[in-house]
């Protein structure tokens, strides 16, 4: 299940490389859920063995404002009830960026980390 990808890209006339790591989550401490334990109303250990995703700009030939980029995260869920599967896709938005902004994260350059588990969003 562990996959590491390097994806070439071009942004504002400059070349770069995105590093994407999709790894199986060994547990709540490695994914940082233990730091959220006091504010979580769910069992943080339910993240174990679920996939994690970390995407970052590994290299980029641009400087200054050219480095401003963002990640948009699409989340697709498949829920099955009584042998009927319902599929839905949403754009995952982090609250502090505002509901009208599609970016999960922005930065100079941005980095994105996500560690889902079965009981989040239910």
Secondary structure blueprint with pairings:
Elements: E1 3-11, E2 14-24, H1 28-31, E3 51-60, E4 69-71, E5 73-81, E6 84-92, E7 105-107, E8 111-114
Notes on the protein architecture:
With 122 residues, the protein is mostly beta strands. It has a domain at 3-69 and 106-114. Helix content is 3%, strand content 48%. The protein contains 1 helix and 8 strands. The protein has one helix at 28-31; strands spanning 3-11, 14-24, 51-60, 69-71, 73-81, 84-92, 105-107, 111-114. It has a 4-stranded antiparallel β-sheet with strand order 1-2-3-8, with no helix packed on it. Strands 4-7 form a two-stranded antiparallel sheet. Strand 5 and strand 6 (84-92) form a beta hairpin. The longest helix is centred in the N-terminal third of the chain and has 4 residues, at 28-31. It starts with a strand and ends in an 8-residue tail after the last strand.
């Amino acid at each position: 299940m562990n996959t590491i990808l390097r994806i070439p890209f071009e942004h504002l006339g400059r070349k770069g490389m995105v590093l994407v790591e999709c790894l199986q989550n060994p547990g709540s401490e490695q994914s940082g859920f233990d730091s959220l334990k006091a504010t979580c109303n769910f069992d943080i250990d339910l993240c174990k063995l679920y996939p994690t995703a970390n995407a970052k700009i590994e290299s980029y030939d641009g400087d200054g404002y050219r480095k401003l980029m963002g990640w948009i995260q699409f989340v697709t869920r498949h829920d099955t009830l009584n042998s009927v599967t319902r599929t839905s896709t949403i754009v995952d938005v982090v609250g502090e960026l505002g509901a009208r902004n599609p970016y999960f994260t922005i930065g100079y350059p941005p980095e994105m980390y996500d560690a889902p588990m079965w009981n989040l969003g239910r």
